[in-house]
Amino acid sequence: MTTQLEDLSPANGSEAGTAPSPPSDMKVWIDGAVVDAADAKVPVIDHGLLYGDGIFEGMRIFGGGVFRLDDHMRRFESASRALAIDLPGGIEAIRGIVLETARAYGAPNAYLRLVATRGDALGVDPTQCGAPRVFCIAAQLTIFPAEKRARGIDLITSSLRRPPADVLDPRVKSLNYLNTVLAKHEARLRGADEAILLNQAGMVSEASVANVFAMRRGCLVTPPVTDGALEGITRMSVLDIAKRAGIETAEKSLGRFDLFDADEVFLTGSGAGIVPVGSLDGRKIGRTRDLTDRLTKEFERFGRENSTAF
Ligand SMILES: Cc1ncc(COP(=O)(O)O)c(C=O)c1O
Prior knowledge:
The chain starts with 26 loop residues before the first strand and ends with a strand. Strands 7, 8, 9, 10, 11, 12, 13, 14 and 15 form a nine-stranded mixed beta sheet that branches. A hairpin with a 5-residue loop joins strand 8 and strand 9. The protein has helices at 47-51, 69-83, 90-105, 146-151, 165-168, 178-189, 233-244, 256-260, 290-305, and strands spanning 27-30, 33-36, 54-62, 65-67, 110-117, 133-139, 153-161, 194-198, 204-207, 211-216, 219-222, 248-251, 264-269, 273-280, 283-284, 307-309. It is α+β, with helices and mostly antiparallel strands and 310 residues long. It folds into two domains: 10-139, Aminotransferase class 4, branched-chain amino acid transferase, N-terminal domain (D-amino Acid Aminotransferase, Chain A, domain 1, 2-Layer Sandwich); 146-309, D-amino Acid Aminotransferase, Chain A, domain 2 (Alpha-Beta Barrel). The longest helix is centred in the N-terminal third of the chain and has 16 residues, at 90-105. The structure holds pyridoxal-5'-phosphate.
């Protein structure tokens, strides 16, 4: 069964009276065991639920292995340090949980969502929380249907700006995603698929759950993470693949001008992979799809070669 976790459209069960239950094949590691999603429960005073006080990773299983597991573990550990959440058992124990979840789920291709919250407390004071809570979900996830990908997805420029690092550092993959959830909602309400968020200086930071790339004048450019982007694992992989293929790459600021003028624009993320973009704010963008298609093919091979078997 395919789950559109990121899709807020009514067709996906958000109409009154049709609240979706978790897909029957979804598995969750929680409290020391892997259980069916329907049996995975967290208390209503979990700080992640009440305040978005926690961190997460979204990972892909490719061909029976977890893609770039060590990089995901490094980023998760960095986020835990940034928020001062002590990971129970340390990062090695967390790594074991991810592999145990993947093994129990068993599918050779799937999506994993690892979450750590600060624990339980009703008030906002983080010092009052009990022990941090960890859980890991395994499921199937398709963010954009194949026909959308074939056409290239439609973007809007969100009216919301990405918060600067002194408000909430976008490099921390925290559970506080209201900024990008609302940007995505804005895109869906305007009939588009995804939103680009600009930073306070009006430069492109990223999309709601993906990094942005533009091929322009022979150079593949993505904004530096200091422009308000997550240090995406797929982003890093695409930069590696492109460099190895002799393609010039740069991490430098992009404006909307650069996207309108680009030969190709695509998004990258663990959930969606490499996603061609067809339009921005109602205007067709891009002239070719050659590099996007080439990188997509290379990425499939790279994915299998850089995965940790479970
Ligand atoms: C805000 C944001 N930017 C970018 C990405 C892409 O990062 P990655 O390639 O590591 O999945 C994500 C992934 O969830 C994200 O949430």
